């Protein structure tokens, strides 16, 4: 039967020579996604006139808070995995700890909330407009999420309901997300792959819409929220291990995806009405960054004009200078 094989448990960790610990493949892939998003965001900000490298100042706040938010959201929506008799939830060196992020368990919606708080702090620190940074980040963030789904593949997580499709995903027996009673060899919907494809398409859609309509003031990020929330709402509805919390029979993660779509629509229409024009600067008033290279170029031009004036005895560019120039006879 045609199917997609999953990597074995040995692929989930990378051993290091002369070191008792191992690098988690999931963490390494997430790091690659962060680097890619940071580089692209930095390039987009620099084109807008922001200081080169300012993205690093903001990521110093956004990345740690994003990780914390992702973990806390997962813990809150999966309490049975952490809160049980004899659990060591506060000991980071014990299995089942809420701090043991290397065991897996992180929610993108929590990462967005925590990361947004970090971006707000970083933008206050650097003087950048929050919406300018959010717009610059949007396509890179979606691409980073697509890359990060490779980590779910190596961890054999984020898969959907059983299927007989030729691209069904093989999952090792004993995976705690597999419902009891399913026969051995059951294939599952590869949700990680579906989301990767959806995210990559979304990157092209976001970039095209921004160029076509010159979207600013947070409207690019609004499109990101709408696109990602719409796709994620469907994928979460066919996920085999949804959140333990439901409302009206709908898992909490589906509601969170609906919330992302609604929030994106609100941001888009509110910002369109409040700011029909273009942003005057990527910085808030009074916090503008002055390019020192531009100042040097201006000073060099002034020096050249002074040298020309000293040589001819008249100010460069004056009517007298033009009258005595060779080109004017």
TrEMBL record:
Main location: membrane
Record field: transmembrane: 23-42, 54-76, 96-121, 128-148, 191-209, 216-235, 247-270
GO MF term set: phosphatidylglycerol-prolipoprotein diacylglyceryl transferase activity
Membrane topology term: Multi-pass membrane protein
Xref: Pfam families: LGT
GO cellular component: plasma membrane
UniProt-listed Enzyme Commission number(s): 2.5.1.145
Gene Ontology process terms (BP): lipoprotein biosynthetic process
InterPro entries registered for this protein in UniProt: Lgt (IPR001640)
Region listing for Disordered, in residue ranges: 279-329
Ranges of biased composition (kind: Acidic residues): 294-310
Pathway participation: Protein modification; lipoprotein biosynthesis (diacylglyceryl transfer)
Entry keyword annotation includes Chaperone: no
Keywords from the UniProt entry: Cell membrane, Lipoprotein, Membrane, Transferase, Transmembrane, Transmembrane helix
Low complexity bias spans: 311-321
Name of the top EC class for this enzyme: transferase
Compartment(s) where it occurs, according to its Swiss-Prot or TrEMBL record: Cell membrane
Annotated residues for binding of a 1,2-diacyl-sn-glycero-3-phospho-(1'-sn-glycerol): 149
NCBIfam families registered for this protein in UniProt: lgt
Family: Belongs to the Lgt family.
Known role: Catalyzes the transfer of the diacylglyceryl group from phosphatidylglycerol to the sulfhydryl group of the N-terminal cysteine of a prolipoprotein, the first step in the formation of mature lipoproteins.
Protein name: Phosphatidylglycerol--prolipoprotein diacylglyceryl transferase
Species annotation: Leifsonia soli
